[in-house]
Write a structure and sequence with these properties.
By secondary structure, the chain is of the alpha/beta class. The chain contains ten helices and 17 strands.
């Protein structure tokens, strides 16, 4: 199989490749890498990728011509599209002119909807699945309306994007005004009640109308957390692999609502992020339309969603479509750092 993996300058595509190369047993597997930046490290990781290409941005006029040439030259079997912008462009193309190879994608409507965290929050609010929130533009003159609704202790972030873009714990009007000023690239913000409980993720793999696989984890600490005022960088350094079917139930309830709202088929891979309140009730903070950076940690623990994706795209008839929530050994954790494979171990084995 010749598999195209896009955006290899980011940690998630490289994590996906590691899950295939280190934790799966495919034979004759060739991974072809692309990225828009010639300095992207993944383009030169020859232990992961057999061939690499620099490509235009997904919105460029010559993007599809370049991609088609790569697909033809490398005899691409399937593509794994991971940067959010490319997911949206491939989804649109898939529904209009068609894409040049097999790919697992959400509908373009669902992809666009989930990028807008404020809209997602609005739709899920009647179900009680999201924290109390207020969306506002950066030019809002009277920011006191945010405090009137949420009090003096809340979390603010960009209403679109990932990796905690524009996020900070706010405790005063001065802090919010300053944060708006030093984030000129953020035009629309989402403020939500500050939640003090666990930071959880639920992975959901859908195929042609059916949920086929799921798994859960907890994000505890982040790589290079000190460089971000919020302490969140999008890359987990320490996390726990969990067995929480109730979390899956909440995640699928939310997904059912959003599939219905967007008129989308239940298809694609999604990461539903939660934050718990002080009583342990989980609230959804965002939903990613793709894998995330610790995909390889799930694979190392026995939940190889990368391998599942490849199997579904290559031979869906041979895939066991009976629903399965991946279960892990109790107390299983993962440790990650830059440029290293993850360590999977029991939490009780930590030193000190």
């Amino acid at each position: 199989m010749n598999i195209l993996i896009t955006g290899v300058g980011g940690p998630t595509p490289r994590s996906f490749a590691i899950a295939l190369k280190k934790y799966a047993s495919f034979k004759n597997l060739r991974l072809i890498a692309t990225d828009i930046n010639p300095l992207s490290m993944g383009l030169y990781q020859h232990d992961l990728f057999d061939v690499s290409y620099v490509v235009p941005r997904a919105t460029a006029s010559d993007y599809w011509e370049v991609i088609q040439n790569i697909v033809d030259k490398e005899h691409i079997t399937m593509a794994v599209i991971l940067p959010e912008l490319e997911v949206m462009e491939w989804s649109k193309r898939n529904e209009t002119e068609g894409v040049p190879c097999n790919v697992l994608l959400p509908s373009s409507t669902m992809a666009s909807f989930l990028v807008d965290k404020a809209k997602m929050t609005e739709i899920l609010d009647p179900l009680g699945l999201v924290p109390p929130s207020v969306s506002f533009d950066r030019d809002l003159e009277d920011i006191s309306v945010v405090f009137d609704t949420l009090g003096d202790d809340f979390w603010v972030r960009s209403s679109s994007g990932t990796s905690g873009l524009g996020s900070l714990h706010i405790d005063s009007q001065a802090a919010l005004r300053n944060w708006i000023q030093i984030n000129p690239g953020v035009t629309h913000f989402l403020a939500s009640t500050f939640l003090t409980g666990r930071n959880l993720a639920c992975k959901l793999l859908y195929w042609e109308g059916k949920l086929v696989r799921s798994a859960c984890a907890e994000r505890v600490n982040y790589i290079m957390a000190k460089v971000a005022p919020s302490g969140i960088t999008g890359n987990t350094s320490f996390g726990r692999l969990l067995n929480e079917p109730k979390l899956v139930e909440v995640a699928t309830q939310a997904m059912d609502k959003m599939f219905a709202y967007t008129g989308s088929d239940k298809h694609g891979f999604y990461t539903v992020d939660f934050k718990e309140d002080s009583l342990g009730k989980p609230y959804i903070t965002e939903v990613n339309v793709r894998h995330v950076a610790f995909t390889q940690c799930f694979a190392a623990g026995g939940a190889n969603f990368a391998a599942d994706t490849v199997q579904l795209l290559s031979d869906p008839d041979a895939f066991d479509m009976d629903y399965r929530m991946y279960e892990f050994e109790e107390g299983l954790i993962f440790l990650r750092d830059v440029d290293s494979l993850p360590v999977i171990m029991r939490e009780g084995e930590l030193l000190g």
